[in-house]
Amino acid sequence: MFTNRVVLPSATDESAFTLRFKPNSDVFGMARVVRARRRRRPNWSLHDVTAAVTESAARDALVEVFEGDKPVLVHLHGNSMTPALCFERCTRFEELYGVAVVGFSWPSEGRLATGKRSAAALAASAKEERRMTLADVTPTNRATVSGIFDVMERYRQSKANGQRSAGAIARFLRLVGVAHAAARAAQPFSIAAHSLGAHCLQMVIEAGLGSDLPEARNIALLAPCVPNWRHARWVARLPRSGGLVITTNVSDMVLLGALISDREGKLGASYALEGLVDDPDTRYVDSTRRRPWQHEYFIAERGEKLAKDLRDVFQRFFSSGDDIPPRTNPCDVYRGCCDGVPRVCDVS
C-alpha cells in the first residue's frame, strides 16, 4: 500500500497513515498491510512502514508483486475512504477476483492538509459526520437538514485534495511501470479507479503529468465521479494496451449527491451519455436495473452476493483479460448485448 498522507513510521496499524498531507508534493510513503483479528473485529497490521520511500525501494517492492502468481490490479479509491476502509476494499478485490492488489491511499476524508476540518464544514457534530454520507444529499434537504452542508463541503474538499495529490499519484503510477518492466516474467496489470479515484486520474492527465504513465492492460473507471460532458478529451489519453470500461448507474445515490453539491452531471450516473469515446475497445457498461441506488456494485453491497455473470465481467477485466474474448458474441457476455461503436453494454 502506498500513500501521499503524512506517515508515522512508529505506528503498526492504520493510524500510521494520518489525515495530514503535503499538497502538490510527489513524495509518498509505503507499507505492507496484512489483516489481523483483534477484539472481535478486523484490524490491520502494517509492516516496513516508510514515510518517504525512495524510487529504488518502491520499485523493489512492486517487482516482488509483479513476480508473484496472480495478475495485478492497481486501485485508486474514491471519496471518504479512511486508510482502514481502503485496506478493506483492496482485500475485497483480492478475495472476489483472485488478483494481487496494489493500492494508493490519498486524503479523501474531506479534511484540510493539516488534518483539521475546514471552517466551512463545521455545521455537523462528530456524530453527524460519521452518520451522514453524500448519498444523503437530496435537492430538498441541502439547505434544511443539519449536517448536509457539512457533507457537501467535505466532498468538495476531497475533490480539491485529489487535485493536489496528482503529482504523487503520477509518480506512483510511473514507478508501477518501471517495476513492471524490471520484473522477470511479470504479471500483467490493470487499473481500477473508483468514483473520485477517477477524478484523481483525470487530474493527472489534465495537469500534463500523464506522459510517463505506464501502459496498463485494462483501465476501469468504476462509477466515475467526473464531469460527463468533457470526459472523452482526457479518457482517450489514458495509456492502455487492452480495453477501457466505464460503468454507469443512473440510480447511483452517491453520484446524485455529488451532482447536487457541485451542479455538474457525473459520468458514472449518465443515462443519455454525451460525447462518447469513439474507440472499439472502450465500453460503457450500464448496471442501473441490476443494482439500483448502488455506488459499489462491483463488490456487492449490504451483504449481497455478487451475481455470477456480473462477477465474470469484472473478473476478466480486473485480471487483465479480454473484456469480450475473441470469437465470442457480445450478447453471451453482456445481458443487453452491446450497441454500436463506441459500445454501450447492459448488465442489467
Structure explained in plain terms:
With 348 residues, the chain is an alpha/beta fold. The chain has a single domain, classed as 3-Layer(aba) Sandwich (Rossmann fold). The protein is built from 10 helices and 13 strands. Strands 5-4-1-7-6-8-9-10-11-13-12 form an 11-stranded mixed beta sheet, sandwiched between helices. A two-stranded antiparallel sheet has the order 2-3. Strand 12 and strand 13 form a beta hairpin. It starts with a strand and ends with a strand. The mean pLDDT is 89.
Largest sheet: 11 strands, mixed
- Just give the CATH class: Alpha Beta
- Amino- and carboxy-terminal Cα gap: 34 Å
Order of strands in the sheet with most strands: 5-4-1-7-6-8-9-10-11-13-12
β-strand amount: 15-25%
Secondary-structure element order, N to C: EEEEEHEHEHHHEHEHEHEHHEE
Name given to the CATH architecture: 3-Layer(aba) Sandwich
Count of helical segments?
10
Q: What does the average pLDDT come to?
A: 89
Percent in helix: 25-40%
Radius of gyration, rounded?
19 Å
Number of beta-strand segments: 13
Question: How does the helix and strand content classify structurally?
Answer: alpha/beta
- Pick out the low-confidence regions: none
Spell out the CATH superfamily. Alpha/Beta hydrolase fold, catalytic domain
In the CATH scheme, what's the topology name? Rossmann fold
Task: Count up the domains.
Answer: 1
Shape type: globular
Q: Would you spell out the secondary-structure blueprint of this structure?
A:
Elements lengths: L1 E2 L1 E3 L9 E5 L7 E10 L2 E10 L4 H12 L5 E5 L6 H15 L2 E6 L20 H6 L16 H17 L1 H17 L6 E6 L1 H11 L12 E4 L8 H5 L8 E5 L4 H10 L19 E5 L21 H11 L11 H4 L4 E2 L3 E4 L2
Parallel strand pairs: 1-7, 6-7, 6-8, 8-9, 9-10, 10-11, 11-13
Antiparallel strand pairs: 1-4, 2-3, 4-5, 12-13
Helix pairs in contact: 1-5, 4-6, 4-8, 5-6
